[in-house]
Design goal:
The structure is a single chain. This protein has about 200 residues and is an alpha+beta fold. It has one domain (about 5-190). About 15% of the residues lie in helices and about 35% in strands. It is built from 3 helices and 9 strands; from the N terminus they run αβββββαβββαβ. Strands 1, 2, 3, 4, 5, 6, 7, 8 and 9 form a 9-stranded antiparallel β-sheet that branches. It starts with a helix and ends in a 10-residue tail after the last strand.
Length: about 200
C-alpha cells in the first residue's frame, strides 16, 4: 500500500468519525472522493451536506504501515505512540444533501446554504493526523463513566465545520453555543469500555 492509498484506506475504512456518541456531529469519508458531514441536535438540523475531498500533497503524507496493520488485527498499542497517519486534504463543502439517519431531509428545512455564507463552500486545505489507542468521545464532559471508548482519533488543525465568520450573522449565537468551529477531533471504531485510567481524554 502506497502513502496515497493509505490515506483513503485509513479515512474510509471507518464507518464514521464521530465528535459525539449520538451520531449528531460526524464525518463519513468515501473512497470516490466524496463524504458526508452532519451537525444535528434534534429537533434542530444545521448541516447535512456532501463534501468533496482529496489528498492535497501526496509527497507530504506520512504513513506507518506496520503499525496500522497491527492496529486492525492485534489489539491496542500505547496511545502515546506517534500518529499512524499525517496528511493534508483539500476539503470542499457542497450544497448537496445526503440522507440523514436513512431519511431524506425535508426540502423545506433551512440548512446548509440557508445558514452559511458563500465562503463556507470554498475549498480549504486541512491538515490531519490519525492516532490509534483508547480514546473518549471528544464531547465527553468527564462527569460520568464513558459509554463508549474508541480505537482511532482523527485530529484536524482547523475544524472541518465552517469558521464562525462563514455562518450568517443571525446564527452566531447558536454556533457559539454548539461550538461547531471548535470541533477538531473525531473518533472511530467503538470498543468495549475499560476500567478508569485506560483511556486518553
Amino acid at each position: 500500500m502506497d502513502n496515497l492509498e493509505a490515506v483513503y484506506t485509513v479515512l474510509c475504512d471507518a464507518e464514521s468519525w464521530n465528535w459525539d456518541v449520538d451520531d449528531e456531529h460526524k464525518l463519513i469519508f468515501h473512497s470516490d472522493g466524496t463524504g458526508e458531514i452532519t451537525s444535528v441536535a434534534q429537533p434542530c438540523i444545521w448541516i447535512v451536506a456532501i463534501f468533496e475531498w482529496k489528498v492535497h500533497d501526496p509527497t507530504t503524507v506520512q504513513f506507518r504501515p506496520e503499525q496500522t496493520r497491527r492496529s486492525w488485527i492485534q489489539g491496542l498499542s500505547s496511545s502515546t505512540e506517534p500518529p499512524i497517519l499525517r496528511a493534508s486534504i483539500e476539503f470542499t463543502l457542497t450544497k448537496r444533501r445526503p440522507l440523514l439517519f436513512g431519511q431524506v431531509v425535508d426540502i423545506r428545512r433551512h440548512i446548509n446554504e440557508h445558514l452559511l455564507l458563500d465562503a463556507a463552500f470554498e475549498p480549504r486545505v486541512l491538515n490531519i493526523t490519525v492516532k490509534r489507542g483508547r480514546f473518549l468521545s471528544p464531547s465527553f464532559g468527564g462527569n460520568s463513566s464513558p459509554d463508549f471508548i474508541f480505537q482511532y482519533r482523527l485530529t484536524f488543525d482547523v475544524s472541518p465545520y465552517p469558521a464562525i465568520e462563514a455562518w450568517r450573522p443571525e446564527t452566531h449565537d447558536m454556533v457559539e453555543s454548539i461550538g461547531q468551529p471548535k470541533m477538531i477531533q473525531f473518533c472511530a471504531r467503538r470498543l468495549p469500555p475499560e476500567p478508569a485510567g485506560c483511556v486518553v481524554m
